[in-house]
Amino acid sequence: MSDSIFKAVFSPSLPQGGSLGVFSPSRYAEPAWFEEMKKRVEAEGYKLVVHQQNSLRKGWLAGEDESKAAALMELFLDPKIDAIMCARGGTGALRFLDLL
User: Fold this and answer.
1) What does residue 77 show for φ and ψ, rounded to 5 degrees?
2) Predicted local distance difference test score (pLDDT) of residue 1
3) What is the pLDDT of residues 4-15, one digit of tens each?
4) How far from 18 is each of 3, 35, 52, 55, CA to CA, in Å?
5) Residue in 49, 53, 85 with CA at minimum distance from that of residue 66
6) Cα–Cα distance for residue pair 43/39, rounded to 1 Å
7) Which residues pair with 22 in a beta bridge?
8) What is the pTM of this model?
9) Closest among 19, 24, 86 to 49, alpha carbons compared
10) Strand order through the sheet with 19-23
Protein backbone atom coordinates (compact mmCIF):
# COMPACT_ATOMS: atom_id res chain seq x y z
CA MET A 1 0.00 0.00 0.00
CA SER A 2 2.67 2.50 -0.89
CA ASP A 3 0.13 5.02 -2.17
CA SER A 4 -2.07 4.76 0.89
CA ILE A 5 -3.41 8.04 2.24
CA PHE A 6 -2.58 6.83 5.74
CA LYS A 7 0.90 7.65 6.95
CA ALA A 8 2.50 6.75 10.24
CA VAL A 9 3.67 9.64 12.36
CA PHE A 10 6.49 8.92 14.79
CA SER A 11 7.82 11.25 17.43
CA PRO A 12 11.59 11.55 17.82
CA SER A 13 13.26 9.30 20.35
CA LEU A 14 13.83 10.66 23.83
CA PRO A 15 17.45 11.84 23.86
CA GLN A 16 19.81 10.42 26.47
CA GLY A 17 19.77 12.87 29.36
CA GLY A 18 16.37 14.18 28.22
CA SER A 19 13.69 15.46 30.56
CA LEU A 20 10.45 13.62 31.32
CA GLY A 21 7.67 15.82 32.64
CA VAL A 22 5.13 14.00 34.80
CA PHE A 23 1.65 15.03 35.87
CA SER A 24 -1.38 13.25 37.32
CA PRO A 25 -4.43 13.34 35.02
CA SER A 26 -6.59 11.20 37.29
CA ARG A 27 -6.02 9.70 40.69
CA TYR A 28 -3.75 11.23 43.31
CA ALA A 29 -0.33 9.56 43.66
CA GLU A 30 1.56 9.41 46.94
CA PRO A 31 4.80 11.47 47.10
CA ALA A 32 6.82 8.28 47.77
CA TRP A 33 5.75 7.03 44.34
CA PHE A 34 7.47 10.01 42.70
CA GLU A 35 10.61 9.51 44.76
CA GLU A 36 10.89 5.91 43.55
CA MET A 37 10.07 6.93 39.99
CA LYS A 38 12.74 9.63 40.08
CA LYS A 39 15.40 7.13 41.20
CA ARG A 40 14.51 4.73 38.41
CA VAL A 41 14.30 7.37 35.67
CA GLU A 42 17.57 9.00 36.70
CA ALA A 43 19.29 5.60 36.88
CA GLU A 44 18.43 5.23 33.18
CA GLY A 45 20.11 8.57 32.41
CA TYR A 46 17.08 10.85 32.17
CA LYS A 47 15.81 13.77 34.23
CA LEU A 48 12.38 13.65 35.89
CA VAL A 49 10.45 16.90 36.24
CA VAL A 50 7.48 16.43 38.58
CA HIS A 51 4.88 19.13 37.96
CA GLN A 52 3.63 20.80 41.16
CA GLN A 53 0.08 19.76 40.21
CA ASN A 54 0.97 16.29 41.45
CA SER A 55 0.81 17.53 45.04
CA LEU A 56 -2.81 18.70 44.72
CA ARG A 57 -5.66 16.60 45.99
CA LYS A 58 -9.45 16.68 45.71
CA GLY A 59 -10.89 13.47 47.12
CA TRP A 60 -9.35 10.62 45.13
CA LEU A 61 -8.36 12.97 42.28
CA ALA A 62 -5.12 14.88 41.81
CA GLY A 63 -6.71 18.31 42.11
CA GLU A 64 -9.38 20.20 40.20
CA ASP A 65 -9.93 19.53 36.50
CA GLU A 66 -8.64 23.02 35.65
CA SER A 67 -5.34 22.39 37.44
CA LYS A 68 -4.82 19.11 35.59
CA ALA A 69 -5.49 20.74 32.21
CA ALA A 70 -3.17 23.64 33.07
CA ALA A 71 -0.41 21.25 34.15
CA LEU A 72 -0.55 19.30 30.91
CA MET A 73 -0.47 22.47 28.81
CA GLU A 74 2.46 23.87 30.82
CA LEU A 75 4.44 20.68 30.20
CA PHE A 76 3.60 20.74 26.47
CA LEU A 77 4.74 24.35 26.17
CA ASP A 78 7.93 24.00 28.23
CA PRO A 79 10.87 23.75 25.77
CA LYS A 80 12.96 21.95 28.42
CA ILE A 81 10.54 18.99 28.53
CA ASP A 82 11.30 16.30 25.95
CA ALA A 83 8.44 13.91 26.79
CA ILE A 84 5.37 13.81 29.05
CA MET A 85 4.37 10.89 31.19
CA CYS A 86 1.22 10.38 33.26
CA ALA A 87 1.68 9.36 36.87
CA ARG A 88 -1.62 7.55 37.07
CA GLY A 89 -4.44 7.01 34.65
CA GLY A 90 -8.12 6.36 34.96
CA THR A 91 -11.52 7.82 34.33
CA GLY A 92 -10.55 11.10 36.02
CA ALA A 93 -8.55 11.97 32.90
CA LEU A 94 -11.75 12.21 30.86
CA ARG A 95 -13.03 15.02 33.08
CA PHE A 96 -10.69 17.72 31.76
CA LEU A 97 -10.44 16.99 28.03
CA ASP A 98 -12.80 19.82 27.14
CA LEU A 99 -10.50 22.23 29.01
CA LEU A 100 -7.52 21.61 26.72
Assistant:
1) -85, -10
2) 47
3) 565 656 667 888
4) 36, 18, 19, 23
5) 53
6) 6
7) 50, 85
8) 0.81
9) 19
10) 47-50, 19-23, 83-86
